[in-house]
Amino acid sequence: MGYDLSTFRSELSKYDLKMDVKQEQQFIRYYELLISWNEKINLTAITDFEDVLIKHFADSASIASMDCFRSAYEKEGSLSLIDVGTGAGFPGIPIKILFPGVRLTLLDSLQKRVNFLNEVVSELGLSDVNTVHGRAEDFGKDPAYREQYDFVVSRAVANLAVLSELCTPFCKVGGSFISYKGDHGAEELADANRALSLLGCEVRSQIDFKLSDEEFHRFLFDIHKVKATDRKYPRPAGTPQKKPLV
Ligand code: SAM
Predict the structure, then answer these.
(1) CATH code of the domain in which 116 resides
(2) In the prediction, which pLDDT does 1 show?
(3) Burial label, 124 (beta-carbon count in 10 A; 0-12, 13-18, 19+)
(4) Which residues, judged by CB distance below 6 Å to any ligand atom, belong to the binding site of ligand 1?
(5) Which of 55, 82, 106, 108 for a ligand 1 pocket mutation test, highest count of atoms within 8 Å of Cβ?
(6) Domain ranges, residue 205
(7) Confidence check: pLDDT of 31 > 80
(8) Residue 56 within any structural domain of the chain
(9) Is the pLDDT of residue 41 over 80?
(10) 224: burial class by Cβ within 10 Å (0-12, 13-18, 19+)?
(11) Residue 43 lies inside a defined structural domain of this protein
């Protein structure tokens, strides 16, 4: 089947990004695997090709417009990044395809989704990708993961006050947690102020944008880690959600 990538290419051009033939083939194969596995396990409600290109792939790629990420990648040609609650691989896999030097960890608490991710990593020939089955509350305490990453990303996992406790323990001091948020991003940010300060973080910058022909806004927040997170965070599995740090 012939796939038309023109809308995706034009979305990427907004971030000054161009794909080579290999990257285009990787995105197409990723789409095919997503649709075929989606018949057996629940991965996404969005299945139309154009919709996946815009709402999953281009949305994931929007990190390219964050100066902190782009300049770190361009300077070093490599950086470490963990995607917390990655599900079917968003935003981590599109970031890896577009920025192949990223050393990627994909973390999710559902084994079936991790099985899918293993297949994607193998079929797309991606190197330097570590898939992990487990909860952020547990791995955030593990010295092999805690404060080991230049960047932490997460999309559609929890509200920002909860999410910050799940994500920021993975981030090195001097690194950033980039939170992908929808229309209510600004309100969530206001509610997360206390949590961010308890976790040793501050918001350094933010962007908001609209995808293709969508009405609503999306936000990306650069939550910068200014000091080490207190060892009491993250609290045991389930507690951040039951008793958010608001
Ligand atoms: N990030 C993907 C996206 O934007 O399409 C998936 C979003 S999905 C709504 C939320 C995912 O987060 C699920 O796959 C779920 O298993 C995972 N998740 C939720 N809580 C988690 C936790 N505490 N630790 C690890 N993964 C978690």
Answers:
(1) 3.40.50.150
(2) 63
(3) buried
(4) 85-88, 90, 107-110, 113, 135-137, 155-157, 166
(5) 108
(6) 66-242
(7) yes
(8) no
(9) yes
(10) buried
(11) no
